[in-house]
Design goal:
The protein has about 575 residues and is α+β, with helices and mostly antiparallel strands. The chain is built from 15 helices and 26 strands. Strands 7, 8, 9, 10, 11, 12, 13, 16, 17 and 20 form a 10-stranded antiparallel beta sheet that branches. It is elongated and about 100 Å long.
């Protein structure tokens, strides 16, 4: 990656963004770090231990980062590099500390970063090159075997795999680098696998195809541990004209410090913990996997890239990161989700100019962010805008959006029960559902029967007024919450809807009767009912449908008149 004179190297750059050590200190201060000093086997104990906080009923706000400082393998080998697991996105609080902003500001921070990238700045004497191993050193105990890479899914995975590994490659035609997060199978002290997941249209694979066409191996650098902002951008999907390190600059609000690798012509983050350098063969592919994947199934063996290592550089006090991936929710999905949702919002609002969008939510538990996507809209958004957004999400990326659902702002898009509620009562399939054929299968188990998929678009927004939500009004629920807490009952975690609200069919007459009821004066309503006795209507006739009813008829006629004016 060429640097201009304005980007010339400096040995004493100003830096306000945190490196990984400073981030860990911030987690410790915030009470979000668990430090494990007892011996832990990286191949059998480490990931299963942390996995419990995702599969053991632990609420997201109670999840923590884990720092393992006494790591060994099943043969008793001890490692001098600590391992940080769930330290970047174990939950939203951890993620926000890494982002340096409040949780509610994360989406806008992403949108600003993607709209205002900043080129990196080259530096000298980078911390990531305090120790350099090359040639024979790599085969004498200082290669990949010296790095405590855990086994993610003991009992299924066929080797340790790097999960927080950011592969940096370069387009041989444009000179633009790409940084993508791919898994890396540890095969030998100087050889590792590379799986760029071609169904996700990754830059690493597109670069590999270009280098193959030229008949040359692809230069590559793998980052293991780095400033949090670098990891956050490694999982983002940005147009090929951008280097993810430029997006990192936009995210931190200043140029990222980078340094040139020792054996390949690539720029890497200067404050990285460990850098693996080498060349990916474009002549040969090797078997890789099984590996427990984020779609909730084991990815079976397939042919993938292989990286021949030429150098490993690191800090003297390096810390390695490992992400808990596999079944979602996981650290891997938590770290991807804000970036994916911001990119979808940017596409729909800025590129397509769609009005009325409140939020895009990528469903996480078990579905791995790609398959179920929910779009929230302001009430009364035009149907044409809703359908433009549904089609926009389905076509944004070839492997995303199998079930795309539009809902109103009052539907909690993070609550699958609420989504099904909207689909059940605000959607009529013959009118509000469309199917798109010939979609890519995408990230998931591959079918041997049919290698194509499809997408279902669902408009589950309100098309007319509805009666209120049948829960006590907010003031009564809040008062009851105070009593609950005064009794020392278990902590409440409210889920929408947790109080009742009007959807357009409530009127002054009904409100008056409801107020009488809470004042224990409901006998007046009983007398009102007696006076309205009729013998000319069928059972279950709604009074709001009667044009001659004095409390409903005139009001409905006025509503219709207002609608006709529009």
């Amino acid at each position: 990656m060429a640097m201009s004179a304005a980007e010339r190297a400096t040995s004493a750059p100003n830096r306000t963004y945190p490196d990984l050590h400073e981030h860990i200190a911030a987690l410790r201060k915030a009470g979000l770090l668990i430090e494990i000093d007892r011996p832990i086997n990286k191949d059998t104990e480490m990931h299963p231990l942390v996995r419990w906080q995702f599969r053991g009923g632990i609420p997201p706000e109670d999840r923590r980062a884990f720092l393992f400082t006494n790591v060994h393998d099943s043969k008793g080998r001890k490692y001098d590099i600590p391992v940080l697991v769930c330290g970047l996105a174990g939950n939203n609080q951890i993620y926000s500390i890494g982002m340096g902003c409040k949780i509610e500001e994360i989406r806008d921070r992403w949108i600003k970063a993607m709209s205002n990238p900043l080129k990196p700045r080259m530096v000298k004497d980078a911390p990531c090159q305090e120790i350099v191993y090359q040639d024979a050193d790599l085969r004498n105990g200082n290669g990949l075997d010296a790095i405590p890479v855990p086994i993610s899914t003991p009992g299924w995975d066929n080797a340790p795999y790097t999960t927080s590994s950011h592969f940096i490659t370069i387009d041989p035609d444009t000179g633009i680098q790409n940084m993508g997060n791919y898994r890396g199978m540890i095969k030998a002290p100087d050889r590792m696998g590379m799986n760029p997941s071609i169904e996700l249209r990754t830059g690493g694979y597109m670069h590999w195809a270009k280098w193959k066409e030229k008949g040359q191996p692809m230069p590559c650098a793998v980052v293991l541990g780095c400033p949090p902002a670098v990891s956050y951008t490694a999982v983002q999907k940005v147009p090929e004209i951008y280097d993810e390190l430029d997006i990192t600059g936009g995210l931190i609000g200043q140029p990222l410090n980078v340094v040139k690798c020792k054996t390949v012509d690539l720029m890497v983050p200067a404050e990285a913990e460990i850098i693996i350098e080498g060349f990916v063969s474009t002549e040969f592919l090797e078997p890789e996997a099984p590996f427990g994947e984020s779609h909730g199934h084991v990815n079976l063996q397939e042919y993938n890239g292989v990286l021949d290592v030429t150098a490993i550089t690191r800090k003297k006090n390096a810390i390695m990161t490992s992400w808990v991936s596999q079944v979602t929710p996981s650290e891997s999905s938590c770290i991807k989700r804000p970036a994916y949702e911001a990119a979808q919002m940017l596409h729909l609002k800025n590129n397509l100019g769609i009005q009325g969008i409140v939020k895009v939510t990528t469903h996480e538990p078990l579905t791995s962010l790609h398959k179920l996507i929910v779009i929230q809209f302001e009430r009364n958004t035009k149907r044409t805008e809703i359908w433009r957004a549904l089609y926009g999400v389905a076509s944004f990326r070839r492997a995303e959006g199998k079930w795309v659902v539009a809902v109103d702002k009052d539907i909690d898009a993070d609550n699958s029960d609420a989504i099904f509620w909207a689909m059940s009562y605000r959607c009529k399939p013959h009118r509000d559902v469309e199917m798109l054929k010939h979609k890519d299968e995408g990230h998931g188990p591959r079918s041997l029967i049919d290698n194509e998929d499809s997408a279902v678009l669902i408009d589950a927004t309100l098309k007319e007024t509805f009666p209120p939500i049948s829960l006590p009004k907010r003031e009564y629920m809040e008062a009851a919450k105070g009593i609950w807490e005064s009794l020392g009952l278990p902590k409440l975690r409210p889920e929408m809807p947790w109080y009742g609200y009007d959807l357009g069919e409530w009127n002054e007459h009904l409100e008056r009767q409801a107020q009488l009821a809470v004042k224990s004066e409901y006998w007046q309503t009983g007398e009102w009912c007696r006076q309205r006795r009729r013998s000319d209507v069928p059972m279950n006739t709604e009074m709001r449908t009667l044009e001659d009813d004095p409390d409903y008829g005139p009001a409905r006629k006025e509503k219709q008149a207002q609608k006709d004016k529009k």
